[in-house]
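Example record used in the benchmark description.
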Amino acid sequence: MKLDITLSNPKTKQQIDIDLPARYSAIEDVLFRLNCDETISASGRILDEYGRGAVNFYFETCNIFELNHLATLTQKFDDDRSSQFIGGYFLMSQKGSVNAPGAINLAMNIQSNNLVFSQPAMDERDLAEFYLDNDLIPELADVSDDIYQWIVDHTNLQELGEEILQKENGTFISGDYVTMEELETLYDGNSPMPFPEPYVFKLEVGFHPDNDDGSRYSLPLPVSHSEIERVVQEMEVTDLSELTCYKMHSIVPSLEPMDFDMTEIETVNQLATSIAYFKETGELNTYKALVDALDIIYLEAVHNLCEYVSEFELKASERDFASYGRNRFQNILPEELLECLDTEDYGRKIAEKNGVSMTEYGALVPKDGVPLMEKLAQLKEAQNQTTAMEQTM
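Model output (structure tokens):
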């Protein structure tokens, strides 16, 4: 079962799509980008595994960890339970709006008892046939087979299905007919929170596809050089070139798609050490903003960024050119005059003049006025000169 979710800040209406359930770092990251605490608004669709049955939902205010708990409960629902949840949610919404705790309580009931039922039926006619074929109509329980068959042959199946539907207050979802009894109160309002990850990167290491036997080794970074050597020994290879990284998790979500060769693992480990340091010093979001400002994410570039974290100031409250321009006049002009100014155009021009990069994490302001890309170009040139000198020696 899947939840297509868009989160938004209830105050600013800024929106971000997210896949739930998510790890702690991903939730922490999206809250910072939304510039809000754990209280968010959420909208989207609840779908079965194949995207057939679906209901729309909107939680005006909810706790993101409650929403994560709901996704955790429903992600492993099979087809039957998915139909029960979607049908149950639809039935609840017919009586009024459903909030996140109500959806969680529904999921917990489906997980633990049989108060939500689903039967195979596409429409009212199918429903009537199913009830007749399975002797589910109490009024016909004691009649003879001949009379029973005569009633079946002369019954308006459409009308019978409509009567059953109305009597049982059921609904059709994804080829199933769903009914629901009164639910037990199982959710006590306490949602489990994911734990902060004890790593910067976690790699799933295995053999190259040509020689892959399905073996995988989990390698958290940063680690000591001896731990990396132990991976080589346990995987029974001569060096890291025989291995590849199949999956990477990171406390910096934008780095997870980054490609690198396992022979570069020492550089990745150095990067992990630097990021762990930024986390301890409170500079992690500044580093994330630097990554967000890059045109292309690759190992050399994100590693070079570590040189510049202390040279930038992140203004998290300035998420666009309009807010950046507005804040330049905040204590100079009265509010009514500010409303008359094109603060977005001014903000864009003054940001370009000051070398400011606008990122999802806020305005990235260089302390010396030199833009990030210019700094990286200067570093690249210096590295090329060093390499050229080494080659001539």
